[in-house]
Amino acid sequence: MKKQILKIVKIGGKLIENEESLSAFLHDFSQLEGPKILVHGGGKMATELSDRLGFKTNMVDGRRITDADAMDVITMVYAGLINKKIVAKLQGIKSNAVGLCGADGKSIISKKRVIKEIDFGFVGDVEVINTKFISSLLENDIIPVFSAISCSNEGELFNTNADSVAAEIAIAFSENYQTELFFCFEKNGVLKDPLDDASVIDLLDTRTYQNLLNKKIISEGMLPKLHNCFHALEHAVSEVYLGGPNLLQKGAQHTKIIK
Ligand SMILES: Nc1ncnc2c1ncn2[C@@H]1O[C@H](COP(=O)(O)OP(=O)(O)O)[C@@H](O)[C@H]1O
Ligand SMILES: CC(=O)N[C@@H](CCC(=O)OP(=O)(O)O)C(=O)O
After folding, report:
1. Ligand 1 proximity of 220 Cβ (cutoff 6 Å)
2. CA within 20 to 30 Å of 113's CA: 85, 91, 121, 249, which one?
3. Where is this site: Transition state stabilizer (predicted)?
């Protein structure tokens, strides 16, 4: 039997800040047919608030070193301000949504990220997605809206890269759905030349990806993003796209990730 399509859409932090572009994006998102899940970042806003509070931000390979102060800031910014704003805007355009972090309904369980030479602090890698709980929302036509915060089995909140959250949700649902994963960010796709916004690569396969990595053409937040794209394809996600704020519109320029 053919599986139903489930769309998982991730919106990056730089697109969230502008009210107009956020509203336009949410309008496109609400028009998508069938079950859908939204995951949002917010890294830029968290960094700005940290600056205002006098806390230094330290990113390593696109991931935030998250000490106790940073964890407080990101909980307020991701699970609070941004998440509630998005859910309210969706309600305003008659799309029923519920805002979640991984602790809610035990929806995203993670374990502290352990990398020998780097202590990331309160950063978690996803271990379990509670598809049963999330499905109960989808079955009731409620759109789950996830922030980039997960929860350990011991009840600790962890910061988890939003691209990883989206990819892990897509992977977990691939058993029961045909999953399509969309990453919306500042650029119209992966650039062959990071300084030339017109150099979007239409189709990106593993070989070209390795080539770009070797030449250091992929950097910062693009590192976890593309790692997650290929990780998702390797784990039964059907289709993966990267593009700009208009990605969900028909005919929008994008990069399609292929094996
Ligand atoms: N080859 C590349 N193609 C596109 N963007 C790149 C590339 N290399 C680095 N980048 C940078 O990575 C950014 C995307 O990562 P990030 O800011 O973490 O995304 P998000 O908006 O999803 O949080 C782009 O806006 C761009 O500045
Ligand atoms: C561990 C880690 O790095 N978490 C990310 C989560 C937010 C995020 O991914 O936001 P964008 O999608 O807007 O970059 C962070 O705190 O920046």
Report:
1. yes
2. 85
3. 10, 225
Q: What's the predicted TM-score (pTM) here? A: 0.98
Tell me the two tokens of residue 128: 């379990």
Q: 204 in a domain, yes or no?
A: no
Tell me the two tokens of residue 162. 């939003």
The parent domain of residue 101 ranges over 5-188
Domains held by the chain: number:
1
What percentage of the chain's residues is helix, strand, coil (to nearest 5)?
A: 40, 25, 35
C-beta of 245 in contact with ligand 1 (< 6 A): no
CATH number, domain containing residue 20: 3.40.1160.10
Buried b (16+ CB within 10 A) or exposed e, 201-224: beebeeeebeebeeeebbeebbbb
Asked whether residue 42 is marked as a ligand-binding residue, the answer is yes
How close is the Cα of 155 to the center of ligand 1, in Å? 32
**Cβ contacts of residue 110 below 8 Å, gap of 6+?**
102, 124, 125, 126, 127, 150, 151, 152, 158, 160
244 lines ligand 1 (CB under 6 A): no
- Judged by its nearest atom, the ligand closest to the C-alpha of residue 44 is 2
pLDDT tens, N- to C-terminus, the chain (259 residues): 789 999 999 999 789 989 999 999 999 999 999 999 999 999 999 999 999 999 999 999 889 999 999 999 999 999 999 999 999 999 999 999 999 999 999 999 999 998 888 999 999 999 999 999 999 999 999 999 999 999 999 999 999 999 999 999 999 999 999 999 999 999 999 999 999 999 999 999 999 999 999 999 998 889 999 999 999 999 999 999 999 999 999 999 999 999 9
